[in-house]
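Progress report, Aim 2. The chain analyzed during this reporting quarter is listed below.
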Amino acid sequence: MKSNNTELNGKAGEGGKTFKDNYLASCQKVLARIASAKEAIFKESFEVLKAHERLLRLALNEAEAVARQTLYPHLVFPDLAREKVQAVIAWDRQQSLRRGSVHAGPQARRVAGAF
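Predicted structure tokens for the chain:
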């Protein structure tokens, strides 16, 4: 039990890593997974929403911010990001209909359905 206390206090345990080092490495892995998922979802969705790149990035940033408030952000983020992207696609379709053009078109339906 004493070795666990020294690891929690920041002293190196077995393997030379402290609790703090392990925690930091774990956090960095989670952030990297979120960044990777964010980039993949952006690339997939950008084909449909080229004219709305900024809006798409804002939606993904919002999803990331909400996901980070949970205990498992790397698990929550992908689904939340897809919901946000679907909302942007729906908004784009609605705006296109109001303008009388079909900006989003069938490709938007395909991407929205993929989520």
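The helical segments are 2-8, 19-46, 53-67, 73-99, 105-114. Residues 63 and 81 are 5 Å apart (CA to CA). These observations will guide the mutagenesis work planned for the next reporting period.
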